[in-house]
Every structure is written in structure tokens, then in C-alpha cells.
Fold each of these.
Amino acid sequence: MTAPVPGSTDPAIIRNFCIIAHIDHGKSTLADRMLQLTGVVGEREAKAQYLDRMDIERERGITIKSQAVRMPWTVTPEAAADLDIDAGTYVLNMIDTPGHVDFTYEVSRSLQACEAAILLVDAAQGIEAQTLANLYLAMGADLQIIPVLNKIDLPSANVEKYAEELANLVGCDVSDVLLTSAKTGLGVEALLNEIVKQVPAPVGDPDAPARALIFDSVYDTYRGVVTYVRVFDGKLTHRDRIKMMSSGATHEMLELGVISPEPLKAADLGVGETGYLITGVKDVRQSRVGDTVTSQHNGAVEALGGYSHPNPMVFAGLYPIDGDDYPTLRDALEKLQLNDAALTFEPETSGALGFGFRIGFLGLLHMEITRERLEREFNLDLISTAPNVVYHVTMEDGTEIEVTNPSEYPDGKVTEVREPVVKATILSPSDYIGTIMELCQNKRGTLLGMDYLSEDRVEMRYTLPMGEIAFDFFDQLKSKTKGYASLNYEFAGDQAADLVKVDILLQGEPVDAFSAIVHRDAAYGYGVMLAGKLRELIPRQQFEVPIQAAIGARVIARETIRAIRKDVLAKCYGGDISRKRKLLEKQKEGKKRMKMVGRVEVPQEAFVAALATSQPTDKSKK
């Protein structure tokens, strides 16, 4: 099957769609089957999760980056007669999107470049929290929804029940829900025909000035910035001079083409087409996601609607273990920010850890993946501080201070501290309602409402402080519900709370890397836990070292690292007691002087171990 010649495609035969689903519901497997059926990936090149290009994606079995691919699909005369569509070869532009809540921004960008979304649901697990979130995103973007029930070949699949649940959710008949098994290929051919029938052809003015939306971009070491665009009006031509409308920067197009699924050069890209541009630009800031590309001469006046920039939910410090790696870390973050537009960072200095960056993430998985990518792709050794959220502190004189790091927490009289809260949606079997309620109450949650989706599945809506779920909430939720519950959350403003800053003092000196802002009820537990951990991790000195946890000037917990005692009497064999006493007094004076001038050196391993496990304990653990 040969692909249509790129650059000369009639918009009437183009179908742009994306696949949205909860994590692990079979998006990447369905994409694999489509690539094989349409002939763009042969039997020899085929491998599982073909579009997941990063090692980390393949190891974890999750999609982190959206991937666009162009596929030809021929509708046979028999299928065309059944579906009442024209027979012939169509061009399908598919975007495979991530499923985890932390990568929702990737999904929202993909939706803007499509006319339809395949809503994929696992026939053994049913609708999950992220399924709902992605569905609402697609409906907000006014896309055609194609409901599909996947994994129907599993012995545990409950097709009738979940097909009805999905039909009720989308608002269609049960007969309209398509049944597939991406693993075996069952029903995928029928799905491709339905895509041709149900997905509207792209609409745009081919004679208007060129306008294309940047929906993604990646950094290539040899070719610079590779920009992925969806053309809405006009035409982009090879060697044309283009202009980025937000920055006004102009470039010459060195190459353009489509991904099928490897890059394929084209002469031009017309209305409705999805492809890539290479301009040779090395500065990552000049290709901003959400920007509009137009021609430099006789270009468009009005830009396309971009994306609302995501607000970081969790902040953490990243520091290189070797101080000489600081410039490398800065370059790495700039390149990674191009691949991941949701990443924000600014330089910061820590007395204990040296120079590093304060980085904003969309969630804990986002933070974990970013750190792992920096270490793997740029060969860096990093320490990350405990994650924090943004607090707004109002002082007695009325000034308001934004705190993203405990070291920024002001001294003096504080009138009010406001913390961010999220609206969380938890979907779970009804057997675990009591367990989930107990967990959410311990995390200072407020129940907003509860609905039964079916007789044994319940949707619970809570307001929870972001600081409480930024640590181990998701892990606890999974372990308490045997992995059945799913969580989705969105930012919902802020609220006043009784929060305090807990400092960790070594020999009376605060160590900024171990400070934390926690609820007053959890402060004692945090202080005891971290002081105990540091006592085990910090090596003993020649003098006694007190470790204290304090709120302001009030010490709430204390541990002591005992001194190493050098045996100064080893050389005394018998003799007068006054000789021994003289040596002991001399040692005592020396230790007192050492304690005055001595500085406690915290080894790097102690920082890594303490920060990896430092989490405020909730009230139930006290």
C-alpha cells in the first residue's frame, strides 16, 4: 500500500484524530496495530510500543510524550457501501497521547490539532478518573468522540456492563460503542473505517495567508529545534521564509515534511495537514509551543488561539552533586523545556547544597520522570529536595509574600498562610468507600459529593490541600484499595490553613535543605522522624552534636549524635592518678574548644537518603 504523495493532499481525504484514555488501557498497543494494518510499519520493524521512543517510556510501559504519525488507509468498495462513504485511500493523522494525570497538558495540546478523539476504555477495568478528565477536555475542545471498548479478549472482560457505562457517559446508544482487542487486532479494521466515516474533514482556507499551530517541538543535537505543526490556513512551502507570530522571529525553512512514522520530506504542507519544520534554530526559546507560524511576506495578521499555560503544582530544588555540572544542568533544563513545555525553572542557592535550580512540576510523576531524564540523557548526578507547593503568607503589616521554598518563609509575625487546594475525583469499587474516606480525612480533605456510576462503582469528589497529596497520597490510595482506585485532580484556588515552618538545626545552625512547611498537627511527627533519620546518617564527630527540630525559637524534637571518645589513657600503665586526671582534663578542654569552632559536615549520601524519604507524617501516624 503506497502513501499519498506528501504535500499534495486534498483536505477532504484527511482525518485528524487522537487517542485518549486512562493509563494502561491500551493506547500504545492500539497505535501499534493501526501502524501495522495501514502498512507504514512492516513486520520486520514492528515492535511493541512502537511510538514510545524514549527508553524510560518502554521500561515503565507508559507514554510521556505525544507522538504524531501519518497513515494511509484504503476503504474497500464493500466497506464503503456498508458505511455509506466513498471508497478510496484516505490520510489518517493520529496523535498517541499520555494517560497519566501529570501529562494532561500534553493531551490538551494534542486535542487542539485534531477534529476527533477516540475514547478508549479497558473492558476489564471500566471507566477510570483520567478517562473522565480526558473526555471533558475533548468535549471542551468541541471534538467528535468515538467511544471504543478495548481488551474484549480478556477472560475478565465485562463487555455488556462497561459498554453500557461508556454509552451513558458519552450519550450514545450501546450499539455505537466499538469493540476491539488491540492485542489481537480484532475490530481494529472496523475502527479505521469508522474513523473515516465519523471524523470530520479539516476546514480551512487554502488561499488565505499561511497559519499553522505549533503543538509540540523537540531538540535534536544535530539539526536543532524540530517543530511539529498543524496547518489551519494557506500553505507552508519548502525554503519559504516563516515568522513566529508571538516573538516576531523570522527563519528560513530548511526542511518540512510529515512523520510516517519516520520523517518523510515534503514539498509543502496544506490545510489540515500535520507535519514538522526544521529551521536550523539552536535557541530553544524561539519555538514556543502554542505559537502561530505564518509566512514572513504577506503573512497572517491574527494568530490562532494558543494554549493556556499550565500552572506548576509542585516545586522542588535540583542540585548537581558536582558543582562543576551547574552550567550543564542549565543547558539540559533549557533543552528539556522544549520537549516539555510544562516545565518551569529558576536559579537558586542553598547553603548546604550549593548552586542549583528551583523547578516547577505538574505532579510527582512529572518530577520523577524529569529527574530521571536529566540523569540519563545528559549524564548528570543530581540531588532533589523534598517537593513543595506555593504558599501565600500575609504578615501583620499587610504585606503578602509568595513562598515556593521553605527558606523563603518570612520571620516575624504571620497573620495568615494560604495553601493551594485541588478538586480531586476518585473512582473506586464501592467496597473501599470507608478506606478512602479515612485516608482523605487524615489528609485534611472535605467531601464534596459522591455518585454511583453503577451498582459497584462510585465516584467521590473531594477538596484536598495540594501539599498533602504532593507526597505519598497516590501511593497510599493504591495500596489501601489494592490498586483499584484511580485519581484525577485539578487546581481549585487556595484556602487559609494553620501551617508552620519546621527548621532542622545541627549544633544550633539551621540546614535549609531539610526545612519544610507543614500543618501544625504534623509538625511534631516530621521533626521526630527527620531528626531520628539524620542521627543514623550523619557520621559521629570528635564532639557531641545535637540535632533539633524547631518551629521558630521553640524546639519540638531533639536527637544527639554521641562523640567519638579517643582513649588518651592508653599510654598510661599504672602510676599516679593525677597524671590520668591531667590528660582527661586536657581532652575535655580540647573538645570544648572543638565544639565552639567545629563545623558538622553532612555527607552527600546523608542528603540523598534523608531527602528521598522526608515526608510530613499525617495525623494517623503520630
Amino acid sequence: MPKTFKEIPRERPATPLLDQVEKPDDLRRLGEAELETLADELRQELLYSVGQTGGHFGAGLGVIELTIALHYVFDTPDDRLVWDVGHQAYPHKILTGRRQRMTTLRQKDGLAAFPRRCESEYDTFGVGHSSTSISAALGMAVAARLQGSPRKSIAVIGDGALTAGMAFEALNHAPEVGADMLVILNDNDMSISRNVGGLSNYLAKILSSRTYTSMREGSKKVLSRLPGAWEIARRTEEYAKGMLVPGTLFEELGWNYIGPIDGHDLPTLVATLRNMRDLKGPQFLHVVTKKGKGFAPAEVDPIGYHAITKLDPLDAPAKAPKPASGPKYSGVFGQWLCDMAAHDPRLVGITPAMKEGSDLVAFSERFPQRYFDVAIAEQHAVTLAAGMACEGSKPVVAIYSTFLQRGYDQLVHDVAVQNLDVLFAIDRAGLVGEDGPTHAGSFDLSYLRCIPGMLIMTPSDENELRKMLTTGYLHQGPAAVRYPRGSGPNAVIEPELTPIEIGKGVVRRQGRRVAILAFGVQLNDALQVAEHIDASVADMRFVKPLDEALVQQLAASHDLLVTVEENAVMGGAGSAVSEYLARAGILKPVLHLGLPDSYVEHAKPAQMLAECGLDAKGIAAAIEARLTQLG
């Protein structure tokens, strides 16, 4: 156990209960009185394992009791349990046969950061992006009914995921089809209500009990024979519940709302879940938890401890300082945003719940009236920007590449078709490492390049990023600048807000026979390779419009063109080069290097790049192999 963690004081059995629980079947053999001790041990286990590997932290600590109660009451994996967001699921992984592998979490060939169907039968639905659980669990409930199966479907949605429109679409649909399912809202930020305590827990037990349900159904049968009587009774019940609990919205949508209850009160959780387990129709349970529960720093700073890096013991030897590197690309964007906002009062910044990740903190503090965090609502973020652009504002949408996929229709229909001035600052482009394929920005060049009128730029360093952001901001029409996670090569950043000429690349090195066309941050690796094989290197800068004159020039003076990009090869920047050559009738061998037509599994970013042949060694090997073929 790392010495940075203190034991939770509680008398423990000689043999830890957690050692007796390999699978949920073992858990269900424990007595209810033992569950709180198990919760303490599970919390300590999570503190230890995530301290060893790093990863999402606070949300898992907050659902320890809920995870135990769910597996204790329901017959998992036959009953389907869907976690949303997926980083709540670390305690679930420990209790479902993966405890011994938790130290491999987020590492190459180790456990995934999120639930994955191929990893365990207890992971009933793959999760990476948020707000999918209610739709998935509804689909499972409908399938069970069609198959005549009694299995249950439970969605656990939390950590802000209920802010997304997709969740409400499913909430609206479930009562329409009369689905027998349970949605549990893990409210870990008190976003709906602070009404938690003894009275609230007591009411939840009463309202979820068989006695109350039987009385309600019996009254419905009797009163339904009297014109208008049942409707009056229903509204009376609704108003009475509305005064005591905050579930009116869900009741109006057709859900039987129970709660809020204390999500760390195991006896109440178990009793309430048992009461609700066999209720018919859509059921909604609201539980309030403390993000980071049991680890004081995470309780005080739930945002800072949302995820952590690997923790070292207090007595660990001091590590040698890391070599200096440049600022993070997101930091360069954040500084540019503040500088441009000070220069142009029309600028507004929009993010879908990524203020810290996209580095909009300083902007939000300096320009609060021009800062808009729309929560986990990517579609709304894009169309909000479109509406602002219609009225003369200059929106900048800061969004991760993987999350822009969720707003693609709005990008096409609401922004591009109308040729609106919206700049997309696309963070986390390319391979992002340990979070795996659901979070990788593998496809943005491909899905953006086919949109008419789209300006697409790929900076190779921090200074290029700043210049391209200015270029895209001043451009008339939609523009996108995509940049990776992490730090750059420490290029000198010019403070001016200076654009570059649109559609013009730059030759960075002149060589013989081979020309490497680099799109983005692979430029440095390309230059290393070029020194070895004496190749020319072009920083292409623009994917659209492509610098066709430069491509023609390089094709005329070299035997082989090599395109390099951290994007899917299919439909990406290299495809744009080949399409131009074919259109111009230029016959020239072209080698496309990029991400393969498969999902690249989680590992360290450097490991993932090496696996894809996108590090300097892989680029050199691929070029030498093609030159051998050409003779």
C-alpha cells in the first residue's frame, strides 16, 4: 500500500472479505452486516490500484457502496448492468474477477480504462463517450421482452452524463414502449437536489415498497372506473411527491421516481434496490454520492482528482528531472484565445464540459460573459456556435476530436452548409494513449475533408498552432485546426496574431529521390528520417485546400512521395494527395503512412505510434522497404 494513503479506521476481519470475493456470486453469499466492511476494503483496494497505474479516480471512489449494492441485489451478469460514464466502473472491475489485473489498467495489453464487452461478460456494453447508458439499457430491456426473458436492465448514469440530449431522448422513449428497466442517477455534484437525509431515505423506502405499489395499483383500478377520478388522484400524488422530492420532471416523462437517497448508506441502497427490482415499467432511482469519497484531497477537489497520474510512496527516491519540453498545445490554444479575445470583442468561446482539458480556465475568468460551457452536449455546442455566427459573433468551439464526432450532423448541416464563421479548435487529435480507441482522434481529417468549404489545418509545432488559429479565426467560413494532446517541440512562439497564407505548405529540407509530405506533428520525425536517407521534407500545413502546386513540384523532382499523418489512412490527408495526382494525370509512386484500418488499443502514446509505424524508426523502415521495391 503506498504510504501516501491512510487506512480507513474500522475493525477488520482476520481474513479480508475482499479476498473472499472473486465474482459477484461470492459477494451475494455475504451477510448484509458484512457489506460495509467490504466497502471499506474495496475503497482501499481502489486507492492502491489506481495509485499504481494512474487513471480515473474520483468517480470510482464515489460509487463503492452503489457497486456493491447492485451486484448484491441483482443477478449479474444475467441481469444487465450498464455503467455511464465508464470511469465509474473501476470498483465494478475489481468485483467481477479482474482484481489481480488492476495494476495493468490502461497499459498495453492490460485492462481497458472503460467497460468493454470483449473483456468480461459483466461488461454488458462498451462505454467511452458518456450518456449512452439509458438508450443501451432500454434496447436490452426491449430485447429481453421480445425473447420472453425475465432478466433485468439497469443503467447507472452519472458524473454529468445526464446533461446530454441523448440521455433525455432515451428517457422520453422508454415510457412510450413501457420498458421494464431501472435507471440510477448517480448525482455526485448535487446537480439536482440537496434533499438528502433521514426523511428522504425514509420516503424512498416507502415509495419503493411493495405495499405502496400495491395500494397505488389497486387505487388505479378502482378510480379508473370513475370519470376523471384517477387523473385527479394521480396529480395529487404527483404534487405531494413534488413537494418532498425533486422528481417532477421524471414523473412527467413517465418514470416512477424514487429518491434522492444517500448513495453511501448501504442498508438503504440494498433495501431500495430490492424494492424496485421487480417493479414493472420504467423506474428511476436518484442517489447522491460524494465524488472522491474516502480520500480527503479528492473530496475537496473533485475536478483535480477526476483522474490522477501514478502516485509514488512518500519514501520513494527522488526522480531525475524530466528534460524541458515545450508548453502543452492546449495551453498554447488557451493563451491565444485570451489574446484574440482582448483584440476582438466579437470572439466567444464554447466548450462541451472541457474547460480544464481544453485550457479555457483563464479565458472563463477574464471574459466570463463570452465563455459558454454547454455541459456534455456536443450537438448543442456546434449549433449554438452557428446561431451566434449568424448574428455577427465569432465563435471558437474548443472540442476534442473524438467528441466532435458526436456533433457531426450539426457541423455539416448547421455550420458548413450555411458557410458560417465558426472556428473549431480540435484538441486530442491522433492517438491519445491510455484511454484507448474510444478517445482517440483517429478520424477527424477524414470526416472533415469531405465537407465542402471546410478549411483544415495541421500545425507541426506550437508557433504554427498559434498562427493557424489566427488564420482560421480570420477566415470567412468554417475552419478547423487539429492538434494533439501533450507538449510540442518547444518552438519559439511569436506573440503577434499573424495569419499565414491559406493553402501554402513549406519545404523544410531539400533532399534527393524521396519527398516526405508531413501533415502535423510528425514533421520532427520526418526530419530525423530525412537526415538518414537524404530526403526532402515538406510541412504541408493545409489538408484543405491542399497545396497542389507544391505536390506537383515534389512529384516532378522525386521518385517517391511519402505522406505522413496521425489520422486514418483511409480518406485522410494522404488520400487528398493521391486524389490530386490522379486528377492531374501525374503517375508517381506514393506511400501513405498513417493509422491502420483497425482500432489501436490503449498503451503509452509512444508505444501506439511505434505499433502503427509512425515513429521515426517505423517511417524509415517503411520508406526503405518501398525503395527496395522500386529498385
